[in-house]
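Researcher: I'm preparing a figure for a lab meeting and need a structural model of a single chain. I don't have an experimental structure, so a prediction will have to do for now. The sequence is pasted below. Please return the structure as tokens so I can convert it later.
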Amino acid sequence: MSTDTGAELQRDQAGRLRHLLTLDGLAGGELEQLLDLAQFYARTPGDMPPRDQSLAGRTVANLFFEPSTRTRVSFELAATRLGADVVSLDLQSSSRVKGETVLDTIYTLQAMLVDVFVMRDAEPGLPAYVAAHVAPHVSVLNAGEAHVSHPKQGLLDTLTIRQRKGDIGALSVAIVGDIRHSRVARSTGRALLTLGVGELRLVSPASLMPDAEEFEGARRHTTLAEGVRGADVVMALRIQRERMPEASSLDADAFNREWGITAENLRLAKPDAIVMHPGPMNRGVEIASEVADGPQSVIRQQVQNGVAVRMAVLATIVRNVQARNVEAGRRAGCATGRIAARSSSRTPSCSRPGNIRDSSTSSACVRRNAPPPRRPAASRT
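Model: Understood. Here is the structure written out token by token.
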């Protein structure tokens, strides 16, 4: 299943984001707008969580056909705090285990008036495939697509770096571990490169390094010491065993000795470097507990930002769909009014009492199509 159409599919005819399937194709300004809105929603532990009614009356369906803790819960919290109704479905509780196709699952839920589908699946291209088949008013958000893409994780990682380090253009960011099979590395790397990161380093054994045509502009390092030396940000990635047919041959202890982030090798980075991990962590493999829980770790801040980023994405997507629906309603309303005016003397539907309408457009319809006003009755003498 091809993933090439994701960047094109995610926009409506006016160029607005209707879906969020990938960070490919998003301009720096678009990323900054999403990050700024996420910062608006961000809170520190102990604060009351932000709430508004941006999604009031909407329904969000979380379809997680791969395991998830952080992404699934943060999407549920984000949608709830924006006023939406939320339903969640995993593979084992869905009719897909009985042979139902994914599109039949989507069409079933769409018939129940679901407005947004949040999807995680192991099949490359599935979010774009679904986005190409949903109704015009429905949106699809990619919550993790095989090894290909994890857009919201890329945004929350970038937000965390921006919060702690400021100007991304002045930073050296090292991503360490299994990059070849990591959707996080691809989305976070894309966001950082789009925003002009000073230096993006890929630090990995050759067998876990991505193909040469990927990550254009990044520097590749096949020794840990060389890769983290002088870095401002060090992000550790777990070994993606579920995507590796050769996983049984990997020696976790050997990987830890050569590639694990420890307090000792972290000293090669800048003294104020921050340590990140998208989770779930395999402590003692790609990262030591003393580092994960240490003063340079921002791992829990990443989790915290996950809710804020997903609130920002949901609010933005729904606002864009509402704008598209208003424009479509204007066009359809005026067209209906013109046809009605030609075939009868009744007032066109766009100006009938009780119809929801945009006042400026409806008044134009009325002016063009409404019958002439009645003359006042002659007064009796």
